[in-house]
Target: Major facilitator superfamily (MFS) profile domain-containing protein
Amino acid sequence: MTKDNLQVLNALDVAKTQWYHFTAIIIAGMGFFTDAYDLFCISLVTKLLGRIYYHKAGSSTPGSLPSNVAAAVNGVAFCGTLTGQLFFGWLGDKLGRKRVYGITLLLMVICSLASGLSFGRHPNDVMATLCFFRFWLGFGIGGDYPLSATIMSEYANKKTRGAFIAAVFAMQGFGILAGGMVAIIVSGAFKAQYPSPPYFKNPNGSTVPEADYVWRIILMFGAVPALLTYYWRMKMPETARYTALVAKDAKQAAADMSKVLQVDLEEERQQEKPGEKKGNDFGLFTSKFLSKHGLHLLGTASTWFLLDIAFYSQNLFQKDIFSAIGWIPKAKTMNALEEVYSIARAQTLIALFSTVPGYWFTVALIDKMGRFRIQLMGFFFMTLFMFALAIPYHHWTLPNNRIGFVIMYSLTFFFSNFGPNATTFVVPAEIFPARLRSTCHGISAASGKAGAMVGAFAFLYAADAIGVQKSLIILGVISFLGMLFTFLVPESKGKSLEEMSGEVEQENGNQTQGGRQSSTEIQIA
Model:
């Protein structure tokens, strides 16, 4: 790293927290708001889809999606997300963060709208169309993970970097909350406008034809927040770290940074010796990367993989768990819209009192406690509460103990968010070199989505085959493994990105070789 680059980056590291930092949190965070809304709102409408498209005449219970269709509808977006994380993560390092950032958002807008317009003559045609658009929706969402994390980490100062990246991720909580609230409002409005009897009184009449609009409106609303932030996302300049370290243009980095942050930089001259060798420019598939960062990548990828098995299993199937313990009334005692309303209300309460607070506890404490301690603590309590739910499972199903079950279940959510769900997102954006940062974050995030797919597909069958109790025991064991793999992840609290990635080591070597001579004056307003 050359002297002028180092000074530009030092200016970023010690810059005071400014209004633009918060603007960047909102711009990047709205992507995550949309991500969470789109990924989780599907779990609110799957039972409604079953009633509308898979009703069996004469059946004593409402129609439900066949297991393979339910797994596809719930899991196909994760397949797209995994692919998007790898592709856009790589592209973000090749073309720059800014150039790729708008594409992901446009994909989200188009595919959210298209999901709600799914069509077909037969039920399976509608589901196939829905799955197609949700795959590409996931592809756009996947791109947002590495790009948002990398952009926020590269804009932030080192004192509050963890809180800023965690705040971007915490917008997920509001997305989950919004999904529940939109479903409550839409289903409540239709329920009032089109009253219908419960299923056991009139199986055909319990699902009004207008119910088909409900799930479409809920899915399409995901396009609104993404569309609102597109203009601002396009106005963001390229991050100074990418321009200085990857594009090797410190002058442009200084100019870009001065536009948005109150940092005054004057470049006098900048020259690069012909044929200068950059000893730190090793690639991803090299022995040098493996020796310096191999274990770190294994740590970030494995912990995210294990976390997401537990986290997405809980999120996607909480409606089944609530039904099993009787917190949501039996399906046949409700009409179609009442069922959507009940599931959305339960999910919104969990989000409001455990999911959202958990995220913001992380934001408040991550730069005080450190990433490692929060992640270890989160996995420990997830393990504890999973076993506390699973071992005396029969006790929790008794009517008098249901509130206790919901509280314990909420605590597993709280400690996943005040724990590994946030830290697994933050750390990969901090510990890898700038030219590989987006790629490595994409690999770690894709590993997480592979875990989410295991959770979405396997838990669906496991809950049917072995029951909720044994499924919870398995999730407890998975959380314990996450705790063990956390020891592979380094602590990045209070260190600059260049210290963590080892790029700062090059600075002395380059200066002694006379690499690039410049005179840079930096004043921080």
Observations:
- Confidence is low (pLDDT under 50) at residues 267-277, 507-525.
- The longest helix spans residues 19-53.
- The two ends are 25 Å apart (CA to CA).
- The CA atoms of residues 82 and 446 lie 5 Å apart.
